[in-house]
Amino acid sequence: MKSEFKLFKSKLGLLNLSKHLATVSQACKVMGFCRDSFYRIKELYDPGGEPVL
Questions:
Q1: What is the C-alpha separation between 36 and 1, in angstroms, rounded?
Q2: Total tally of structural domains belonging to the chain
């Protein structure tokens, strides 16, 4: 599996987990991301969807 695909899956997993848990802080803690990274990922994902990740 390519590292780009692994990174894509982890970013998408973070977004999905935050929806499931309803808290960004908890999702970031579980996935090992900081809140700043979450919001950068979300900012990219919201207008463009999966292809931009």
A1: 27
A2: 1
